[in-house]
Amino acid sequence: KKGSVSLMDYKFLETATNHFRESDILGVGGFGCVYKARLADNLDAAVKKLEGGSPDAIKEFQTEVDLLSRIQHPNVISLLGCSVHGETRLLVYELMQNGSLETQLHGPSHGSALAWHHRMKIALDTARGLEYLHEHCSPQVIHRDLKSSNILLDSSFNAKLSDFGLAITDGTQNKNNFKLSGTLGYVAPEYLLDGKLTDKSDVYAFGVVLLELLLGRKPVEKLAPSQCQSIVTWAMPQLTDRTKLPNIVDPVIRDTMDLKHLYQVRKCINTSSVMLYLPTI
Ligand code: ACK
């Protein structure tokens, strides 16, 4: 129940596990599997399950709980409960019958089926959710990973923001422990290249979502390996001056860069180069 979310709610785990079957799978996210559940009071819910998990995944779980247990808005997903039992972590959300915007637009049932009035409303709902995070939450919340797969749709296609694991609530990110987070194609250029994170980073991602709604397809396609290779080859000479490496590479890594870290640098270059593909739409 809202307001009584506890990280160590063992009792809830017993109740929750009794009410979903592993066969009732809704989908698989980066975090773990999501199952359909029926709670004791005939309330349908979605249960996200994290088994074990890296320190980063556990931190994301904690951020999600901390944040969602204290914010509430019609365009933000409701967290009904959570639990930690040994290595098993559960997050229980309201059920969003129409899944994610990504699946609606790009899934097997084809995006063209999503009516224009629904697309308009989804854009508006997303903007309202963002406005709430940016203007009405104190401290301000920056989502940091807004994308179509994190916009969920209920039975009437009302949209709600989800997945707050990467959200930031202290305004700015500490440059000393800067770690680029987000999703390729949605990351704002100034954040990608300079580590400058503001609420406008979410607004940039929102712009990409608007393009998706308009085009009915992903505005940034994955590059073929040969394209990536030529971009890396093109960009490598710029890397001979290590001080010119973008801030997205941790300063310690920048000064002691070896082959092990080259992969990280390449990943960054590929990412920033992919951004250049956006205006070609
Ligand atoms: O696109 P989908 O059908 O919607 O597949 C993904 C999958 O789980 C992994 O994230 C679905 N999902 C996530 N949260 C919920 C929810 N609260 N209600 C319904 N489906 C959800 C998402």
UniProtKB/TrEMBL annotation:
<keyword id="KW-0547">Nucleotide-binding</keyword>
<keyword id="KW-0812">Transmembrane</keyword>
<protein>
    <recommendedName>
        <fullName>Protein kinase domain-containing protein</fullName>
    </recommendedName>
</protein>
<comment type="similarity">
    <text>Belongs to the protein kinase superfamily.</text>
</comment>
<feature type="binding site">
    <location>
        <position position="49"/>
    </location>
    <ligand>
        <name>ATP</name>
    </ligand>
</feature>
<keyword id="KW-0067">ATP-binding</keyword>
<dbReference type="GO" id="GO:0005524">
    <property type="term" value="F:ATP binding"/>
</dbReference>
<feature type="domain" description="Protein kinase">
    <location>
        <begin position="20"/>
        <end position="281"/>
    </location>
</feature>
<keyword id="KW-0808">Transferase</keyword>
<keyword id="KW-0732">Signal</keyword>
<keyword id="KW-0472">Membrane</keyword>
<keyword id="KW-0418">Kinase</keyword>
<keyword id="KW-1133">Transmembrane helix</keyword>
<keyword id="KW-0723">Serine/threonine-protein kinase</keyword>
<dbReference type="GO" id="GO:0004674">
    <property type="term" value="F:protein serine/threonine kinase activity"/>
</dbReference>
